[in-house]
Amino acid sequence: MESLSVELVLGLTGLVILVGLAGELVFKRTGIPSVLFLMGFGILLGPVFHVAEPTAVMKLAPYFGTLALLIILFDGGINLHIMKVVRETPMALLYSVMVFGMTILTIMGFYVWITHASWLHGLLLGTILGGTAAAIIIPVTSHMSSLRDSTKVMLSLDSAISEVFVVVLALALMGTMKDPDGGGHFIREVFHAFWDAIMLALLAGALWARLLAWLEGQALSYMLTMAAILVLYYVAELIGANGAITILLFGLVLSNMEFLVGHMVRPIRMLIGYELDQAKFVLSEFMKRMHEELSFLVRTFFYVLLGLILDFSSLTIEIALMSLSLFCIVVLVRAGVTEGLSRVTDSWSMSERLVIAAMFPRGVATAVMAFLPISTGIPGTELFPIYALTVIVLCVLGMTLVLTLYQRRHPSGSTESVPEPSVS
Known about the structure:
Layout: H1 6-30, H2 35-48, H3 54-57, H4 61-78, H5 82-88, H6 90-115, H7 119-128, H8 134-142, H9 149-178, H10 186-215, H11 220-239, H12 243-255, H13 257-262, H14 266-272, H15 276-308, H16 317-345, H17 350-358, H18 364-375, H19 384-409
Helix pairs in contact: 1-2, 2-15, 4-12, 4-15, 4-18, 6-7, 6-9, 6-16, 7-9, 8-9, 9-10, 9-18, 10-11, 10-12, 10-15, 11-12, 16-17, 16-19, 17-19, 18-19
Protein backbone atom coordinates (compact mmCIF):
# COMPACT_ATOMS: atom_id res chain seq x y z
CA MET A 1 0.00 0.00 0.00
CA GLU A 2 2.96 2.36 0.61
CA SER A 3 3.83 2.36 -3.11
CA LEU A 4 0.40 3.60 -4.15
CA SER A 5 0.02 7.27 -4.97
CA VAL A 6 -2.63 9.42 -3.31
CA GLU A 7 -4.39 9.88 -6.64
CA LEU A 8 -4.53 6.12 -7.25
CA VAL A 9 -5.86 5.40 -3.76
CA LEU A 10 -8.60 8.03 -4.13
CA GLY A 11 -9.47 6.76 -7.60
CA LEU A 12 -9.67 3.15 -6.39
CA THR A 13 -11.82 4.27 -3.46
CA GLY A 14 -14.32 5.87 -5.83
CA LEU A 15 -14.19 2.82 -8.10
CA VAL A 16 -14.92 0.49 -5.18
CA ILE A 17 -17.99 2.55 -4.26
CA LEU A 18 -19.18 2.48 -7.88
CA VAL A 19 -18.74 -1.29 -8.04
CA GLY A 20 -20.69 -1.58 -4.81
CA LEU A 21 -23.53 0.56 -6.15
CA ALA A 22 -23.56 -1.40 -9.41
CA GLY A 23 -23.68 -4.62 -7.41
CA GLU A 24 -26.68 -3.33 -5.45
CA LEU A 25 -28.50 -2.49 -8.69
CA VAL A 26 -27.73 -5.91 -10.15
CA PHE A 27 -28.90 -7.52 -6.92
CA LYS A 28 -32.24 -5.71 -7.02
CA ARG A 29 -32.81 -6.76 -10.63
CA THR A 30 -31.45 -10.32 -10.64
CA GLY A 31 -31.18 -11.40 -6.99
CA ILE A 32 -27.42 -12.06 -7.37
CA PRO A 33 -25.77 -10.80 -4.15
CA SER A 34 -23.30 -7.95 -4.57
CA VAL A 35 -20.73 -9.78 -2.43
CA LEU A 36 -19.72 -11.79 -5.50
CA PHE A 37 -18.86 -8.65 -7.48
CA LEU A 38 -17.09 -6.99 -4.54
CA MET A 39 -14.93 -9.98 -3.65
CA GLY A 40 -14.26 -10.53 -7.35
CA PHE A 41 -13.14 -6.91 -7.69
CA GLY A 42 -10.87 -7.36 -4.68
CA ILE A 43 -9.39 -10.50 -6.24
CA LEU A 44 -8.65 -8.52 -9.41
CA LEU A 45 -6.92 -5.76 -7.44
CA GLY A 46 -4.89 -8.15 -5.30
CA PRO A 47 -4.09 -11.71 -6.40
CA VAL A 48 -4.59 -11.07 -10.16
CA PHE A 49 -3.14 -7.62 -11.01
CA HIS A 50 -1.23 -7.04 -7.74
CA VAL A 51 -2.35 -3.44 -7.45
CA ALA A 52 -2.24 -3.91 -3.67
CA GLU A 53 -0.17 -6.50 -1.85
CA PRO A 54 -2.11 -8.80 0.54
CA THR A 55 0.60 -8.48 3.21
CA ALA A 56 0.15 -4.70 3.31
CA VAL A 57 -3.65 -4.92 3.22
CA MET A 58 -3.61 -7.41 6.11
CA LYS A 59 -2.43 -4.56 8.36
CA LEU A 60 -5.81 -2.88 7.81
CA ALA A 61 -7.87 -6.00 8.47
CA PRO A 62 -7.95 -5.84 12.31
CA TYR A 63 -9.00 -2.16 12.34
CA PHE A 64 -11.48 -2.28 9.49
CA GLY A 65 -12.74 -5.68 10.57
CA THR A 66 -13.44 -4.43 14.09
CA LEU A 67 -15.27 -1.36 12.74
CA ALA A 68 -17.34 -3.59 10.45
CA LEU A 69 -18.12 -5.91 13.34
CA LEU A 70 -19.30 -3.05 15.60
CA ILE A 71 -21.62 -1.64 12.94
CA ILE A 72 -23.00 -5.10 12.16
CA LEU A 73 -23.55 -5.83 15.84
CA PHE A 74 -25.28 -2.53 16.53
CA ASP A 75 -27.45 -2.94 13.46
CA GLY A 76 -28.23 -6.52 14.48
CA GLY A 77 -29.08 -5.52 18.03
CA ILE A 78 -31.23 -2.59 16.99
CA ASN A 79 -33.25 -4.85 14.69
CA LEU A 80 -33.50 -7.77 17.13
CA HIS A 81 -36.60 -7.34 19.31
CA ILE A 82 -36.18 -10.23 21.71
CA MET A 83 -39.58 -9.99 23.39
CA LYS A 84 -41.36 -9.85 20.06
CA VAL A 85 -39.39 -12.87 18.87
CA VAL A 86 -40.27 -14.88 21.96
CA ARG A 87 -43.93 -13.81 21.91
CA GLU A 88 -44.77 -13.90 18.20
CA THR A 89 -42.32 -16.14 16.37
CA PRO A 90 -41.01 -18.98 18.55
CA MET A 91 -40.44 -21.00 15.38
CA ALA A 92 -37.61 -18.64 14.36
CA LEU A 93 -35.77 -19.18 17.63
CA LEU A 94 -36.32 -22.94 17.53
CA TYR A 95 -35.19 -23.18 13.92
CA SER A 96 -32.11 -20.99 14.49
CA VAL A 97 -31.02 -22.93 17.57
CA MET A 98 -31.47 -26.29 15.84
CA VAL A 99 -29.61 -25.31 12.65
CA PHE A 100 -26.85 -23.50 14.50
CA GLY A 101 -26.38 -26.22 17.10
CA MET A 102 -26.37 -29.11 14.66
CA THR A 103 -24.02 -27.24 12.31
CA ILE A 104 -21.55 -26.61 15.12
CA LEU A 105 -21.59 -30.22 16.35
CA THR A 106 -21.31 -31.71 12.85
CA ILE A 107 -18.44 -29.45 11.81
CA MET A 108 -16.67 -30.02 15.13
CA GLY A 109 -16.90 -33.80 14.80
CA PHE A 110 -15.79 -33.77 11.16
CA TYR A 111 -12.90 -31.34 11.73
CA VAL A 112 -11.56 -33.19 14.78
CA TRP A 113 -11.87 -36.52 12.96
CA ILE A 114 -9.99 -35.31 9.86
CA THR A 115 -7.32 -33.06 11.39
CA HIS A 116 -7.02 -34.58 14.91
CA ALA A 117 -7.28 -31.05 16.30
CA SER A 118 -8.68 -30.30 19.76
CA TRP A 119 -12.41 -30.23 20.28
CA LEU A 120 -12.17 -26.50 21.11
CA HIS A 121 -10.69 -25.78 17.68
CA GLY A 122 -13.48 -27.76 16.02
CA LEU A 123 -16.09 -26.03 18.16
CA LEU A 124 -14.67 -22.61 17.27
CA LEU A 125 -14.63 -23.36 13.54
CA GLY A 126 -18.18 -24.70 13.71
CA THR A 127 -19.31 -21.58 15.56
CA ILE A 128 -17.68 -19.27 13.00
CA LEU A 129 -19.34 -21.09 10.10
CA GLY A 130 -22.65 -21.69 11.89
CA GLY A 131 -24.41 -18.38 11.28
CA THR A 132 -26.05 -16.98 8.17
CA ALA A 133 -25.77 -13.45 6.74
CA ALA A 134 -28.68 -11.17 7.55
CA ALA A 135 -27.28 -8.51 5.20
CA ILE A 136 -27.84 -10.92 2.28
CA ILE A 137 -30.89 -12.89 3.39
CA ILE A 138 -33.16 -10.04 4.46
CA PRO A 139 -32.95 -8.08 1.17
CA VAL A 140 -33.31 -11.28 -0.90
CA THR A 141 -36.42 -12.55 0.88
CA SER A 142 -38.08 -9.12 1.14
CA HIS A 143 -38.43 -9.02 -2.66
CA MET A 144 -39.86 -12.55 -3.00
CA SER A 145 -43.60 -12.26 -3.47
CA SER A 146 -44.03 -16.04 -3.30
CA LEU A 147 -43.14 -16.09 0.40
CA ARG A 148 -45.72 -15.36 3.07
CA ASP A 149 -44.98 -12.58 5.55
CA SER A 150 -44.62 -15.05 8.41
CA THR A 151 -41.94 -16.94 6.50
CA LYS A 152 -40.07 -13.72 5.70
CA VAL A 153 -40.16 -12.74 9.37
CA MET A 154 -38.89 -16.16 10.39
CA LEU A 155 -35.97 -15.98 7.94
CA SER A 156 -35.08 -12.44 8.99
CA LEU A 157 -35.10 -13.34 12.67
CA ASP A 158 -33.20 -16.56 12.04
CA SER A 159 -30.38 -14.73 10.26
CA ALA A 160 -30.19 -12.00 12.91
CA ILE A 161 -30.22 -14.50 15.79
CA SER A 162 -27.60 -16.76 14.20
CA GLU A 163 -25.22 -13.83 13.67
CA VAL A 164 -25.59 -13.01 17.35
CA PHE A 165 -24.75 -16.62 18.20
CA VAL A 166 -21.65 -16.51 16.00
CA VAL A 167 -20.22 -13.43 17.69
CA VAL A 168 -21.13 -14.24 21.29
CA LEU A 169 -20.06 -17.89 21.30
CA ALA A 170 -16.94 -17.34 19.17
CA LEU A 171 -15.71 -14.56 21.46
CA ALA A 172 -16.38 -16.71 24.53
CA LEU A 173 -14.58 -19.68 22.97
CA MET A 174 -11.57 -17.55 22.05
CA GLY A 175 -11.40 -16.29 25.62
CA THR A 176 -11.46 -19.88 26.84
CA MET A 177 -8.75 -20.99 24.38
CA LYS A 178 -6.45 -18.17 25.50
CA ASP A 179 -6.94 -19.28 29.11
CA PRO A 180 -4.22 -21.77 30.08
CA ASP A 181 -6.75 -23.77 32.08
CA GLY A 182 -8.48 -24.75 28.83
CA GLY A 183 -12.18 -25.26 28.28
CA GLY A 184 -13.25 -25.60 31.90
CA HIS A 185 -14.07 -21.89 32.14
CA PHE A 186 -16.25 -21.60 29.06
CA ILE A 187 -19.48 -21.16 31.03
CA ARG A 188 -17.78 -18.58 33.25
CA GLU A 189 -16.53 -16.69 30.19
CA VAL A 190 -20.01 -16.61 28.66
CA PHE A 191 -21.56 -15.50 31.95
CA HIS A 192 -19.11 -12.66 32.53
CA ALA A 193 -19.25 -11.57 28.90
CA PHE A 194 -23.02 -11.23 29.18
CA TRP A 195 -23.24 -9.89 32.72
CA ASP A 196 -20.67 -7.10 32.37
CA ALA A 197 -22.00 -6.16 28.96
CA ILE A 198 -25.62 -6.14 30.14
CA MET A 199 -24.89 -3.77 33.00
CA LEU A 200 -22.92 -1.35 30.83
CA ALA A 201 -25.37 -1.58 27.92
CA LEU A 202 -28.39 -0.91 30.17
CA LEU A 203 -26.75 2.18 31.63
CA ALA A 204 -25.50 3.48 28.30
CA GLY A 205 -28.79 2.67 26.54
CA ALA A 206 -30.90 4.51 29.10
CA LEU A 207 -28.67 7.58 29.00
CA TRP A 208 -28.42 7.63 25.22
CA ALA A 209 -32.15 7.14 24.66
CA ARG A 210 -32.77 10.20 26.80
CA LEU A 211 -30.17 12.16 24.83
CA LEU A 212 -31.77 11.09 21.53
CA ALA A 213 -35.08 12.51 22.73
CA TRP A 214 -33.42 15.83 23.59
CA LEU A 215 -31.81 16.05 20.16
CA GLU A 216 -35.24 15.59 18.51
CA GLY A 217 -34.01 14.44 15.11
CA GLN A 218 -31.20 16.96 14.62
CA ALA A 219 -28.59 15.96 12.05
CA LEU A 220 -25.88 15.80 14.73
CA SER A 221 -27.61 12.87 16.41
CA TYR A 222 -26.61 10.45 13.66
CA MET A 223 -22.84 10.92 13.82
CA LEU A 224 -23.06 11.46 17.57
CA THR A 225 -24.52 7.98 18.00
CA MET A 226 -21.77 6.54 15.81
CA ALA A 227 -19.21 8.25 18.04
CA ALA A 228 -20.99 6.84 21.10
CA ILE A 229 -20.66 3.31 19.70
CA LEU A 230 -16.89 3.69 19.29
CA VAL A 231 -16.39 5.28 22.70
CA LEU A 232 -18.61 2.69 24.39
CA TYR A 233 -16.56 -0.09 22.81
CA TYR A 234 -13.38 1.47 24.19
CA VAL A 235 -14.86 1.92 27.67
CA ALA A 236 -16.13 -1.66 27.72
CA GLU A 237 -12.71 -3.05 26.84
CA LEU A 238 -11.07 -0.69 29.33
CA ILE A 239 -13.11 -1.92 32.30
CA GLY A 240 -12.84 -5.58 31.33
CA ALA A 241 -16.24 -6.11 29.73
CA ASN A 242 -16.59 -7.58 26.24
CA GLY A 243 -16.79 -4.61 23.88
CA ALA A 244 -18.42 -6.39 20.96
CA ILE A 245 -21.21 -7.90 23.07
CA THR A 246 -21.70 -4.53 24.78
CA ILE A 247 -22.37 -2.86 21.42
CA LEU A 248 -24.78 -5.63 20.45
CA LEU A 249 -26.72 -5.22 23.69
CA PHE A 250 -26.54 -1.43 23.43
CA GLY A 251 -28.50 -1.61 20.18
CA LEU A 252 -30.82 -4.21 21.70
CA VAL A 253 -31.55 -1.98 24.71
CA LEU A 254 -32.26 1.04 22.51
CA SER A 255 -34.64 -0.89 20.26
CA ASN A 256 -36.48 -2.38 23.25
CA MET A 257 -36.38 0.69 25.51
CA GLU A 258 -40.13 1.27 25.25
CA PHE A 259 -40.80 -2.23 26.56
CA LEU A 260 -38.12 -2.01 29.25
CA VAL A 261 -39.26 1.37 30.59
CA GLY A 262 -42.89 0.28 30.52
CA HIS A 263 -42.07 -2.57 32.92
CA MET A 264 -39.94 -0.54 35.33
CA VAL A 265 -41.18 0.79 38.63
CA ARG A 266 -42.40 4.37 38.60
CA PRO A 267 -39.38 6.03 40.35
CA ILE A 268 -36.96 4.55 37.81
CA ARG A 269 -39.29 5.53 34.95
CA MET A 270 -39.32 9.09 36.25
CA LEU A 271 -35.54 9.06 36.57
CA ILE A 272 -35.08 7.95 32.96
CA GLY A 273 -38.08 10.10 32.03
CA TYR A 274 -38.14 10.86 28.35
CA GLU A 275 -40.76 10.83 25.63
CA LEU A 276 -40.75 7.34 24.17
CA ASP A 277 -42.36 8.49 20.93
CA GLN A 278 -39.63 11.06 20.37
CA ALA A 279 -36.85 8.57 21.10
CA LYS A 280 -38.45 6.00 18.84
CA PHE A 281 -38.76 8.54 16.02
CA VAL A 282 -35.14 9.66 16.30
CA LEU A 283 -33.96 6.06 16.49
CA SER A 284 -35.97 5.15 13.41
CA GLU A 285 -34.50 8.01 11.39
CA PHE A 286 -31.01 7.14 12.56
CA MET A 287 -31.46 3.50 11.57
CA LYS A 288 -32.45 4.49 8.03
CA ARG A 289 -29.50 6.78 7.44
CA MET A 290 -26.87 4.69 9.13
CA HIS A 291 -27.99 1.37 7.67
CA GLU A 292 -28.37 2.63 4.13
CA GLU A 293 -25.23 4.74 3.96
CA LEU A 294 -22.60 3.81 6.52
CA SER A 295 -23.40 0.12 6.59
CA PHE A 296 -23.25 0.03 2.79
CA LEU A 297 -19.80 1.64 2.78
CA VAL A 298 -18.41 -0.68 5.44
CA ARG A 299 -19.77 -3.83 3.81
CA THR A 300 -18.55 -2.73 0.40
CA PHE A 301 -14.98 -2.04 1.45
CA PHE A 302 -14.79 -5.05 3.73
CA TYR A 303 -15.83 -7.51 1.02
CA VAL A 304 -13.30 -5.95 -1.35
CA LEU A 305 -10.72 -6.29 1.43
CA LEU A 306 -11.58 -9.99 1.72
CA GLY A 307 -10.96 -10.42 -1.99
CA LEU A 308 -7.64 -8.57 -1.72
CA ILE A 309 -6.28 -10.86 0.98
CA LEU A 310 -7.60 -14.08 -0.58
CA ASP A 311 -4.36 -15.98 -1.21
CA PHE A 312 -4.87 -18.57 -3.94
CA SER A 313 -1.36 -19.89 -3.43
CA SER A 314 -2.45 -21.34 -0.09
CA LEU A 315 -5.50 -23.06 -1.62
CA THR A 316 -4.09 -26.56 -1.86
CA ILE A 317 -6.05 -29.67 -2.79
CA GLU A 318 -6.40 -30.58 0.89
CA ILE A 319 -7.70 -27.12 1.83
CA ALA A 320 -10.07 -27.07 -1.15
CA LEU A 321 -11.49 -30.47 -0.20
CA MET A 322 -11.86 -29.41 3.45
CA SER A 323 -13.65 -26.19 2.42
CA LEU A 324 -15.95 -28.09 0.08
CA SER A 325 -16.75 -30.59 2.84
CA LEU A 326 -17.56 -27.77 5.29
CA PHE A 327 -19.82 -26.20 2.68
CA CYS A 328 -21.64 -29.52 2.16
CA ILE A 329 -22.15 -29.87 5.92
CA VAL A 330 -23.63 -26.35 6.12
CA VAL A 331 -26.05 -27.06 3.26
CA LEU A 332 -27.09 -30.57 4.33
CA VAL A 333 -27.68 -29.65 7.97
CA ARG A 334 -29.92 -26.71 7.05
CA ALA A 335 -31.82 -28.80 4.49
CA GLY A 336 -32.29 -31.62 6.99
CA VAL A 337 -33.54 -29.38 9.79
CA THR A 338 -35.88 -27.55 7.38
CA GLU A 339 -37.41 -30.77 6.12
CA GLY A 340 -37.69 -32.28 9.58
CA LEU A 341 -39.35 -29.25 11.20
CA SER A 342 -41.67 -28.85 8.25
CA ARG A 343 -42.88 -32.43 8.55
CA VAL A 344 -43.39 -32.13 12.30
CA THR A 345 -45.08 -28.70 12.36
CA ASP A 346 -46.58 -28.60 8.83
CA SER A 347 -45.62 -24.91 8.70
CA TRP A 348 -44.23 -24.41 5.19
CA SER A 349 -45.21 -25.35 1.66
CA MET A 350 -42.87 -27.25 -0.65
CA SER A 351 -41.62 -24.10 -2.39
CA GLU A 352 -41.13 -22.32 0.93
CA ARG A 353 -39.08 -25.23 2.23
CA LEU A 354 -36.81 -24.91 -0.81
CA VAL A 355 -36.27 -21.18 -0.24
CA ILE A 356 -35.73 -21.59 3.52
CA ALA A 357 -33.19 -24.35 2.94
CA ALA A 358 -31.42 -22.20 0.34
CA MET A 359 -30.89 -19.30 2.75
CA PHE A 360 -27.46 -20.54 3.84
CA PRO A 361 -25.08 -17.71 2.75
CA ARG A 362 -22.39 -16.66 5.18
CA GLY A 363 -21.27 -13.04 5.40
CA VAL A 364 -19.34 -10.37 7.23
CA ALA A 365 -19.77 -11.79 10.75
CA THR A 366 -18.29 -15.11 9.64
CA ALA A 367 -15.41 -13.39 7.86
CA VAL A 368 -14.59 -11.06 10.75
CA MET A 369 -14.70 -13.80 13.37
CA ALA A 370 -12.53 -16.06 11.18
CA PHE A 371 -9.69 -13.52 11.28
CA LEU A 372 -9.92 -12.77 15.00
CA PRO A 373 -8.42 -16.05 16.36
CA ILE A 374 -5.19 -15.75 14.39
CA SER A 375 -4.94 -12.00 15.04
CA THR A 376 -5.22 -12.65 18.79
CA GLY A 377 -2.50 -15.29 18.70
CA ILE A 378 -4.51 -18.52 19.04
CA PRO A 379 -2.39 -21.33 17.52
CA GLY A 380 -3.92 -23.83 15.14
CA THR A 381 -6.33 -21.31 13.57
CA GLU A 382 -4.11 -20.17 10.69
CA LEU A 383 -6.33 -21.82 8.07
CA PHE A 384 -9.63 -20.57 9.48
CA PRO A 385 -9.69 -17.43 7.24
CA ILE A 386 -9.18 -19.39 4.00
CA TYR A 387 -11.82 -21.91 5.09
CA ALA A 388 -14.27 -19.12 5.89
CA LEU A 389 -13.65 -17.14 2.69
CA THR A 390 -14.03 -20.23 0.52
CA VAL A 391 -17.24 -21.28 2.29
CA ILE A 392 -18.62 -17.71 1.96
CA VAL A 393 -18.05 -17.77 -1.81
CA LEU A 394 -19.49 -21.28 -2.21
CA CYS A 395 -22.54 -20.43 -0.10
CA VAL A 396 -23.34 -17.28 -2.07
CA LEU A 397 -22.89 -19.13 -5.36
CA GLY A 398 -25.03 -22.02 -4.13
CA MET A 399 -27.83 -19.77 -2.92
CA THR A 400 -27.78 -17.83 -6.19
CA LEU A 401 -28.01 -21.03 -8.23
CA VAL A 402 -30.89 -22.45 -6.17
CA LEU A 403 -32.87 -19.19 -6.24
CA THR A 404 -32.32 -18.78 -9.98
CA LEU A 405 -33.78 -22.24 -10.59
CA TYR A 406 -36.59 -21.48 -8.14
CA GLN A 407 -37.53 -18.21 -9.88
CA ARG A 408 -37.63 -19.96 -13.25
CA ARG A 409 -40.06 -22.51 -11.84
CA HIS A 410 -42.15 -19.81 -10.11
CA PRO A 411 -42.10 -16.85 -12.52
CA SER A 412 -45.44 -15.51 -11.33
CA GLY A 413 -44.58 -15.82 -7.66
CA SER A 414 -47.25 -18.45 -7.13
CA THR A 415 -46.83 -20.97 -4.37
CA GLU A 416 -48.80 -23.68 -2.65
CA SER A 417 -51.38 -22.44 -0.22
CA VAL A 418 -50.50 -22.91 3.42
CA PRO A 419 -52.64 -21.38 6.15
CA GLU A 420 -51.05 -18.49 8.02
CA PRO A 421 -50.37 -19.56 11.59
CA SER A 422 -52.16 -17.54 14.19
CA VAL A 423 -49.97 -15.28 16.31
CA SER A 424 -51.08 -14.32 19.75
